[in-house]
From TrEMBL:
<comment type="similarity">
    <text>Belongs to the cycloisomerase 2 family.</text>
</comment>
<keyword id="KW-0119">Carbohydrate metabolism</keyword>
<dbReference type="InterPro" id="IPR015943">
    <property type="entry name" value="WD40/YVTN_repeat-like_dom_sf"/>
</dbReference>
<keyword id="KW-0732">Signal</keyword>
<protein>
    <submittedName>
        <fullName>Lactonase family protein</fullName>
    </submittedName>
</protein>
<keyword id="KW-0313">Glucose metabolism</keyword>
<dbReference type="InterPro" id="IPR011048">
    <property type="entry name" value="Haem_d1_sf"/>
</dbReference>
<dbReference type="InterPro" id="IPR019405">
    <property type="entry name" value="Lactonase_7-beta_prop"/>
</dbReference>
<dbReference type="Pfam" id="PF10282">
    <property type="entry name" value="Lactonase"/>
</dbReference>
<dbReference type="InterPro" id="IPR050282">
    <property type="entry name" value="Cycloisomerase_2"/>
</dbReference>
<feature type="signal peptide">
    <location>
        <begin position="1"/>
        <end position="18"/>
    </location>
</feature>
Length: 380
C-alpha cells in the first residue's frame, strides 16, 4: 500500500502538468514565412522561420532557405513538410517546391520541385497529405500534385483550366485562379477565380485520380467586377466567407455539404472612402466571434467585423492602419492573442482584445521584407 501511495504521489504532479498543458495548449510556435524575393540587398531571400512565443508576442530568428518568390506556403498536418509556390511571372517559370521541415531547429531542406502551368499565387494541402492544390493566377488554372511517401511531389495528375473573362478589361480579360480552400470536412474544395467573379466548387476524394469533380451546383458567382480572392469558414462549419479584392467586399454564405447560399454582402470601407482598394486576406478568430480582413491599395488597413453567432452575418467594428505598408496575408496565432500581418517592409504584431475584437499594435515587429504568407507550427 505504501508503495502504491508513493507511485501515486510521483505520478500526480506529472498528470496535473499534462492536464494543464492540454487545457492551455502550446505557447511556442514556429512561424513559417513565405516572401517575395529580389536582388536588392535588403530584399528577402526565400522562406524564413522564426520562433514565436505566444505568451509575450515576441519572435526570434531560427533559419531560412533560399528559393525564388515563395509567396505562399502550406504546412502538412504532421508538420514534417512545407510546400511553397515559386511565383515567377516574367519568364513563365512558375513552380512548386517541397521541403523537409524540422520544427525544433526550424531547418528547411529542399526535396524536389515541379513546374506549374502558369504563375502560382496560392497553395494548400489536405490533412491526409495525399495532394497539394496549386492555384495559377497567371494561366488561370488549378493543378493537383500528388504527395509521395517521402514528402516529395509527383507530376501533376489533374489540371482544371478556367475559360472566359469578367467585366473589368484591365483586370479580368482572362481567368485568374487565386486560391483553393478545402471545406472543414475536406469533402469539397472552394476555388476563387478573380478574373471570372466565380467561386468554383469541387467534390474532393483524396485517394482517387482525378480527385476533383464538379459539385452540383458547380460554382457560385460574386458581384461583377468584384474579384474573389480568399475564403474562410466559421469554426462550426455553418458559414463561409469570401473576400473580394477589387471592390473590397466580403460575401457571407450559409454552408451545408458543398452547397452555399449568399446571405450578406458587406463593404470593408465606408462609403466616404475614395481611395484604391486591394483586399487580400480573411481570417476568423479561434473562438469564432470576430472576422478580420486586410485591404491594401491606399487603405492599408486591417478591418475588424463582429460575427452574429446565430446568423453568421457581419457588423463592422473598426479598422487599423498598417503604417502605410502593403498588408497582404496575415494570421491569428492559435492562442487567439495576437494578429500578425505581413507587409512590404516588415511583419507587424497586433494584440487582440478577445472581448471586443479590437487591435492594439504591439511594440514587437519582425524585420522580414515582402512577407506574403504566414503559417504557425506548434513546437511543444
Amino acid at each position: 500500500m505504501k508503495n502504491l501511495l508513493l507511485v501515486m504521489a510521483l505520478i500526480s504532479p506529472l498528470v496535473s502538468s499534462a492536464q494543464k498543458k492540454a487545457k492551455t495548449g502550446p505557447k511556442v510556435f514556429d512561424l513559417v514565412i513565405g516572401t517575395y524575393t529580389g536582388t536588392d540587398a535588403n530584399a528577402s531571400k526565400g522562406i524564413y522561420v522564426y520562433r514565436f512565443y505566444a505568451e509575450r508576442g515576441e519572435a526570434a530568428y531560427l533559419n531560412e532557405v533560399e528559393t525564388d518568390n515563395p509567396s505562399f506556403v502550406a504546412v502538412t498536418n504532421d508538420n514534417h513538410f512545407v510546400y511553397a509556390v515559386n511565383e515567377n511571372n516574367a519568364d513563365g517559370s512558375g513552380g512548386v517546391s517541397a521541403f523537409k521541415f524540422d520544427k525544433q531547429s526550424g531547418k528547411l531542406e529542399l526535396i524536389n520541385a515541379r513546374k506549374t502551368k502558369g504563375s502560382p499565387a496560392h497553395i494548400s494541402v489536405d490533412k491526409e497529405q495525399k495532394n497539394v492544390f496549386v492555384s495559377n493566377y497567371g494561366g488561370g488554372n488549378l493543378q493537383v500534385f500528388p504527395i509521395n511517401k517521402d514528402g516529395s511531389l509527383g507530376v501533376a495528375n489533374q489540371t482544371i483550366q478556367d475559360e472566359g473573362k469578367g467585366p473589368d478589361p484591365m483586370r479580368q480579360s482572362e481567368p485568374h485562379v487565386h486560391s483553393a480552400f478545402l471545406s472543414p470536412d475536406e469533402k469539397y474544395l472552394m476555388v476563387s477565380d478573380l478574373g471570372l467573379d466565380k467561386i468554383n466548387i469541387y467534390r474532393y476524394k483524396a485517394s482517387k485520380v482525378p480527385s476533383l469533380t464538379p459539385a452540383e451546383p458547380a460554382f457560385v458567382s460574386t458581384a461583377g467586377g468584384s474579384g474573389p480572392r480568399h475564403t474562410t469558414f466559421s469554426p462550426n462549419g455553418k458559414f463561409m466567407y469570401n473576400v473580394q479584392e477589387m471592390k473590397a467586399t466580403i460575401t457571407v454564405y450559409t454552408y451545408d455539404n458543398g452547397k452555399v447560399s449568399e446571405i450578406q454582402l458587406i463593404k470593408m470601407m465606408p462609403d466616404s472612402f475614395t481611395g484604391v482598394n486591394g483586399a487580400a486576406d480573411i481570417h476568423i478568430s479561434p473562438d469564432g466571434r470576430f472576422l478580420y480582413a486586410s485591404n491594401r491599395g491606399t487603405a492599408n488597413q486591417i478591418v475588424v467585423f463582429a460575427i452574429d453567432q446565430l446568423t453568421g452575418k457581419l457588423t463592422r467594428v473598426d479598422a487599423y492602419s498598417t503604417v502605410g505598408d502593403n498588408p497582404r496575408n496575415f494570421m491569428i496565432d492559435p492562442t487567439g492573442r495576437f494578429l500578425l500581418v505581413g507587409t512590404s517592409r516588415r511583419i507587424y504584431v497586433f494584440v487582440i482584445d478577445k472581448a471586443t475584437g479590437r487591435l492594439m499594435q504591439n511594440r514587437e515587429a519582425i524585420d522580414v521584407a515582402s512577407a506574403v504568407c504566414l503559417k504557425m507550427v506548434p513546437v511543444e
